[in-house]
Amino acid sequence: MGGLEDQPFGYAITKDGRVRISWRSKVVVTVSGSKASRLATALAAADPEQVQQVLARATGNFKRGNERPTNAR
Questions:
Q1: How far, in Å, CA of 24 to CA of 10, rounded?
Q2: Domain boundaries of the chain, sorted by first residue
Q3: Could you tell me the pTM of the whole model?
Q4: Share of the chain above pLDDT 70, in %
Q5: Is 41 helix (H, G, I), strand (E, B) or coil?
Q6: How far apart are the first and last CA of the chain?
């Protein structure tokens, strides 16, 4: 667990052209404007393995070590 093999990233392209990127079903980044257009083009041309890498790069470093474990109280 933890690698891109289990395909943790997903995305949705909205009607207004924004790309919402999710990680484990939670939206972590929304890209808009010309960056969203370039991202959508790259995603359309990518195979499933490449999609995960493109999405990982697009999110940048959204995890910074301060996330709570799912079983935290």
A1: 8
A2: 4-59
A3: 0.78
A4: 79
A5: helix
A6: 23
